[in-house]
Amino acid sequence: MRRNRGQHWRQDLPYSFDPPDGWEGLPRISQLVLLVDRYARADDGLGCWLAVPGLVQRLGLSTAPLPCLVAGDRAMRMSRRDAVAAARRMIGDLERAADAGLKALRMLESEMRRSAAVLRRQRRPGALVPLAGLLLRMPVLTPAQVARRLGLGLSGAGKLLARAADEELLVEVSGRRSWRVYAAPDIAVACGFVPPRRGRPPRLTGTATDGGLDALLASFDAEMASLGDTFPWLGDERDDEEADGAGLV
User: Fold this and answer.
1) 76-100, pLDDT tens digit by residue?
2) Model confidence over 97-110: pLDDT tens digits?
3) pLDDT digits (tens, 9 = 90+) for 20-56
4) DSSP letter string over 138-164?
5) Taking the CB of residue 119, how many other CB atoms lie within 10 A of it?
6) Which residues, in sequence order, are CB contacts of 92 under 8 Å at separation 6+?
7) What pLDDT does residue 213 have?
8) Helix 143-150 vs helix 128-137: crossing angle, to nearest 10
Protein backbone atom coordinates (compact mmCIF):
# COMPACT_ATOMS: atom_id res chain seq x y z
CA MET A 1 0.00 0.00 0.00
CA ARG A 2 2.88 2.39 0.65
CA ARG A 3 4.05 1.89 -2.92
CA ASN A 4 0.61 2.68 -4.32
CA ARG A 5 0.78 5.85 -6.42
CA GLY A 6 -2.84 5.73 -7.56
CA GLN A 7 -5.21 8.64 -7.75
CA HIS A 8 -7.58 9.65 -4.99
CA TRP A 9 -10.93 11.28 -4.73
CA ARG A 10 -13.01 12.50 -7.65
CA GLN A 11 -10.68 15.24 -8.89
CA ASP A 12 -7.98 12.75 -9.89
CA LEU A 13 -5.50 14.01 -7.33
CA PRO A 14 -2.48 12.02 -6.05
CA TYR A 15 -3.45 12.57 -2.42
CA SER A 16 -6.44 11.86 -0.21
CA PHE A 17 -8.84 14.73 0.25
CA ASP A 18 -11.91 14.97 2.45
CA PRO A 19 -14.19 17.82 1.35
CA PRO A 20 -14.87 20.24 4.21
CA ASP A 21 -18.36 21.15 5.37
CA GLY A 22 -20.20 23.29 2.86
CA TRP A 23 -17.93 22.21 0.01
CA GLU A 24 -20.71 22.08 -2.59
CA GLY A 25 -21.79 25.61 -1.73
CA LEU A 26 -18.34 27.12 -2.30
CA PRO A 27 -17.63 29.02 -5.53
CA ARG A 28 -15.71 26.90 -8.03
CA ILE A 29 -12.71 29.21 -7.89
CA SER A 30 -12.57 28.76 -4.11
CA GLN A 31 -12.69 24.99 -4.55
CA LEU A 32 -9.81 25.24 -7.01
CA VAL A 33 -7.64 27.27 -4.64
CA LEU A 34 -8.35 24.86 -1.76
CA LEU A 35 -7.48 21.81 -3.87
CA VAL A 36 -4.21 23.36 -5.05
CA ASP A 37 -3.41 24.45 -1.48
CA ARG A 38 -3.79 20.88 -0.21
CA TYR A 39 -1.87 19.55 -3.18
CA ALA A 40 1.04 21.94 -2.52
CA ARG A 41 1.36 20.68 1.04
CA ALA A 42 1.09 17.02 0.02
CA ASP A 43 3.66 17.13 -2.79
CA ASP A 44 6.76 19.34 -2.87
CA GLY A 45 7.24 18.99 -6.65
CA LEU A 46 5.87 21.01 -9.53
CA GLY A 47 2.84 18.77 -10.01
CA CYS A 48 0.59 20.96 -7.87
CA TRP A 49 1.04 23.93 -10.22
CA LEU A 50 0.97 21.89 -13.43
CA ALA A 51 -2.28 20.20 -12.37
CA VAL A 52 -4.21 23.50 -12.34
CA PRO A 53 -5.37 23.38 -16.02
CA GLY A 54 -6.86 19.93 -15.49
CA LEU A 55 -8.51 20.95 -12.22
CA VAL A 56 -10.01 24.03 -13.86
CA GLN A 57 -11.61 21.81 -16.49
CA ARG A 58 -12.83 19.13 -14.06
CA LEU A 59 -14.40 21.74 -11.79
CA GLY A 60 -16.39 23.08 -14.73
CA LEU A 61 -14.57 26.41 -15.06
CA SER A 62 -13.56 25.56 -18.64
CA THR A 63 -14.75 23.11 -21.24
CA ALA A 64 -11.22 21.83 -21.94
CA PRO A 65 -7.86 21.91 -20.12
CA LEU A 66 -6.14 25.22 -20.90
CA PRO A 67 -2.34 24.86 -20.70
CA CYS A 68 -1.86 28.60 -20.15
CA LEU A 69 -3.60 28.40 -16.74
CA VAL A 70 -0.61 27.26 -14.68
CA ALA A 71 -0.57 29.18 -11.41
CA GLY A 72 0.18 28.84 -7.73
CA ASP A 73 1.94 30.46 -4.80
CA ARG A 74 4.93 29.16 -2.86
CA ALA A 75 3.46 30.53 0.35
CA MET A 76 0.94 27.68 0.25
CA ARG A 77 3.76 25.43 1.43
CA MET A 78 4.75 27.72 4.27
CA SER A 79 2.97 29.39 7.17
CA ARG A 80 -0.81 29.13 7.17
CA ARG A 81 -1.03 32.73 8.41
CA ASP A 82 -0.55 33.91 4.83
CA ALA A 83 -3.17 31.56 3.34
CA VAL A 84 -5.65 34.29 2.36
CA ALA A 85 -2.98 36.45 0.73
CA ALA A 86 -1.59 33.42 -1.12
CA ALA A 87 -5.08 32.58 -2.42
CA ARG A 88 -5.54 36.13 -3.66
CA ARG A 89 -2.18 36.09 -5.42
CA MET A 90 -3.03 32.78 -7.10
CA ILE A 91 -6.37 34.12 -8.35
CA GLY A 92 -4.56 37.20 -9.68
CA ASP A 93 -2.04 34.96 -11.46
CA LEU A 94 -4.90 32.98 -13.01
CA GLU A 95 -6.52 36.18 -14.25
CA ARG A 96 -3.31 37.43 -15.84
CA ALA A 97 -2.65 34.01 -17.41
CA ALA A 98 -6.18 33.91 -18.83
CA ASP A 99 -5.78 37.41 -20.31
CA ALA A 100 -2.45 36.41 -21.88
CA GLY A 101 -4.00 33.23 -23.26
CA LEU A 102 -6.89 35.15 -24.85
CA LYS A 103 -4.43 37.58 -26.39
CA ALA A 104 -2.39 34.70 -27.83
CA LEU A 105 -5.58 33.09 -29.18
CA ARG A 106 -6.58 36.31 -30.94
CA MET A 107 -3.11 36.56 -32.47
CA LEU A 108 -3.30 32.95 -33.65
CA GLU A 109 -6.73 33.43 -35.20
CA SER A 110 -5.54 36.61 -36.93
CA GLU A 111 -2.50 34.80 -38.36
CA MET A 112 -4.71 31.93 -39.56
CA ARG A 113 -7.00 34.33 -41.43
CA ARG A 114 -4.03 36.17 -42.91
CA SER A 115 -2.42 32.88 -44.00
CA ALA A 116 -5.67 31.77 -45.63
CA ALA A 117 -5.85 35.06 -47.54
CA VAL A 118 -2.23 34.70 -48.70
CA LEU A 119 -2.77 31.12 -49.85
CA ARG A 120 -5.92 32.04 -51.74
CA ARG A 121 -4.02 34.60 -53.80
CA GLN A 122 -1.52 31.97 -54.94
CA ARG A 123 -2.07 30.50 -58.40
CA ARG A 124 0.09 27.50 -57.52
CA PRO A 125 0.33 27.27 -53.74
CA GLY A 126 1.91 23.83 -53.90
CA ALA A 127 3.61 22.86 -50.64
CA LEU A 128 2.70 26.20 -49.04
CA VAL A 129 -0.62 24.66 -47.97
CA PRO A 130 0.82 21.80 -45.86
CA LEU A 131 3.50 24.18 -44.61
CA ALA A 132 0.81 26.54 -43.27
CA GLY A 133 -0.80 23.61 -41.48
CA LEU A 134 2.56 22.55 -40.07
CA LEU A 135 3.09 26.04 -38.67
CA LEU A 136 0.02 25.60 -36.46
CA ARG A 137 1.71 22.66 -34.72
CA MET A 138 5.36 23.75 -34.99
CA PRO A 139 5.64 27.56 -34.98
CA VAL A 140 9.47 27.41 -35.24
CA LEU A 141 10.89 25.52 -38.22
CA THR A 142 14.18 24.71 -39.92
CA PRO A 143 14.72 23.33 -43.44
CA ALA A 144 15.65 19.94 -41.98
CA GLN A 145 12.38 19.72 -40.04
CA VAL A 146 10.30 20.75 -43.05
CA ALA A 147 12.09 18.26 -45.28
CA ARG A 148 11.43 15.44 -42.81
CA ARG A 149 7.79 16.37 -42.14
CA LEU A 150 6.72 17.13 -45.72
CA GLY A 151 8.87 14.59 -47.53
CA LEU A 152 10.99 17.14 -49.38
CA GLY A 153 14.67 17.41 -50.11
CA LEU A 154 16.74 19.73 -47.94
CA SER A 155 17.25 22.18 -50.78
CA GLY A 156 13.55 22.12 -51.67
CA ALA A 157 12.58 22.70 -48.05
CA GLY A 158 14.90 25.70 -47.85
CA LYS A 159 13.41 27.19 -51.01
CA LEU A 160 9.89 26.56 -49.69
CA LEU A 161 10.67 28.39 -46.44
CA ALA A 162 12.25 31.27 -48.34
CA ARG A 163 9.12 31.53 -50.50
CA ALA A 164 6.90 31.46 -47.42
CA ALA A 165 9.00 34.22 -45.86
CA ASP A 166 8.60 36.33 -49.02
CA GLU A 167 4.82 35.88 -48.70
CA GLU A 168 5.07 36.79 -44.97
CA LEU A 169 3.68 33.44 -43.84
CA LEU A 170 6.66 33.24 -41.51
CA VAL A 171 9.75 35.23 -40.51
CA GLU A 172 13.44 34.30 -40.68
CA VAL A 173 14.81 34.82 -37.15
CA SER A 174 18.29 33.26 -37.21
CA GLY A 175 20.10 36.00 -39.12
CA ARG A 176 22.34 33.48 -40.88
CA ARG A 177 22.85 32.46 -44.50
CA SER A 178 23.04 28.77 -43.63
CA TRP A 179 21.09 26.69 -41.10
CA ARG A 180 18.35 29.27 -41.04
CA VAL A 181 15.51 29.21 -38.53
CA TYR A 182 12.01 30.50 -39.31
CA ALA A 183 9.14 31.32 -36.96
CA ALA A 184 5.47 32.18 -37.22
CA PRO A 185 5.00 35.98 -37.25
CA ASP A 186 3.20 36.11 -33.89
CA ILE A 187 5.94 34.05 -32.23
CA ALA A 188 8.63 36.26 -33.78
CA VAL A 189 6.91 39.36 -32.39
CA ALA A 190 6.36 37.83 -28.94
CA CYS A 191 10.03 36.82 -28.70
CA GLY A 192 11.27 40.21 -29.84
CA PHE A 193 12.82 39.11 -33.15
CA VAL A 194 10.72 41.58 -35.14
CA PRO A 195 8.83 44.69 -34.03
CA PRO A 196 5.04 44.48 -33.80
CA ARG A 197 2.97 45.84 -36.62
CA ARG A 198 1.88 49.43 -36.15
CA GLY A 199 -1.22 51.19 -37.35
CA ARG A 200 -4.44 49.73 -38.66
CA PRO A 201 -4.25 46.04 -39.65
CA PRO A 202 -4.27 45.51 -43.43
CA ARG A 203 -7.55 44.47 -44.98
CA LEU A 204 -7.60 40.78 -45.78
CA THR A 205 -8.50 40.20 -49.40
CA GLY A 206 -9.54 36.95 -50.96
CA THR A 207 -11.70 35.87 -48.03
CA ALA A 208 -15.31 34.75 -47.90
CA THR A 209 -16.49 38.12 -46.55
CA ASP A 210 -15.05 40.31 -49.32
CA GLY A 211 -18.48 40.66 -50.92
CA GLY A 212 -20.02 41.91 -47.71
CA LEU A 213 -22.11 40.25 -45.08
CA ASP A 214 -25.37 40.93 -46.94
CA ALA A 215 -24.19 38.97 -49.98
CA LEU A 216 -23.05 36.11 -47.78
CA LEU A 217 -26.41 35.93 -45.99
CA ALA A 218 -28.30 36.17 -49.30
CA SER A 219 -26.30 33.22 -50.62
CA PHE A 220 -27.15 31.25 -47.49
CA ASP A 221 -30.85 32.05 -47.83
CA ALA A 222 -30.80 30.93 -51.47
CA GLU A 223 -29.18 27.62 -50.52
CA MET A 224 -31.76 27.04 -47.79
CA ALA A 225 -34.60 27.85 -50.21
CA SER A 226 -33.18 25.35 -52.69
CA LEU A 227 -33.01 22.76 -49.93
CA GLY A 228 -36.65 23.43 -49.08
CA ASP A 229 -37.67 22.94 -52.73
CA THR A 230 -35.79 19.64 -52.86
CA PHE A 231 -37.29 18.31 -49.61
CA PRO A 232 -40.71 20.01 -49.34
CA TRP A 233 -42.01 17.56 -46.74
CA LEU A 234 -39.56 18.92 -44.19
CA GLY A 235 -41.42 22.22 -44.12
CA ASP A 236 -44.81 20.47 -43.93
CA GLU A 237 -43.67 18.40 -40.97
CA ARG A 238 -42.47 21.52 -39.19
CA ASP A 239 -45.78 23.25 -39.88
CA ASP A 240 -47.67 20.24 -38.47
CA GLU A 241 -45.57 20.30 -35.30
CA GLU A 242 -46.17 24.02 -34.89
CA ALA A 243 -49.90 23.47 -35.36
CA ASP A 244 -49.91 20.70 -32.77
CA GLY A 245 -48.05 22.93 -30.35
CA ALA A 246 -50.52 25.73 -30.89
CA GLY A 247 -53.38 23.32 -30.18
CA LEU A 248 -51.77 22.26 -26.90
CA VAL A 249 -51.44 25.86 -25.83
Assistant:
1) 887 667 788 888 899 999 999 999 9
2) 999 989 888 888 88
3) 888 888 899 999 998 888 888 887 788 888 889 989 9
4) -SEE-HHHHHHHHT--HHHHHHHHHHH
5) 16
6) none
7) 67
8) 110
Dist. CA 94–CA 73, nearest whole Å: 11
Q: Do residues 96 and 64 touch, judged by C-beta distance below 8 A?
A: no
Q: What percent of the chain has pLDDT over 70?
A: 80
Report the share of the chain in percent with pLDDT over 90.
7
Give Cα separations from 141 to 27, 160, 177 (angstroms): 44, 12, 15
The secondary structure of 27-90 as a DSSP string is -HHHHHHHHHHHHHHH--SSHHHHTHHHHHHHTTS-SS--TT-----GGGGS-GGGHHHHHHHH
At residue 226, φ and ψ (nearest 5 deg) are: -65, -40
Q: Are 86 and 34 in contact (CB under 8 A)?
A: no
Does this model's pTM top 0.85? no
Distance CA(167)–CA(122), nearest Å, equals 10
Distance CA 51, CA 45 (A): 11
Q: Which of 96, 191, 66 is nearest to 139 (CA)?
A: 191
Output Rg (C-alpha) for the chain, integer angstroms: 27
Distances (CA, A) of 13 to 39, 128, 199, 229: 8, 44, 48, 56
Q: Give the 3-state secondary structure percentages of the chain, helix then strand then coil, rounded to 5.
A: 60, 5, 40
203 residue type, one letter:
R
Q: Greatest CA separation found in the chain?
A: 78
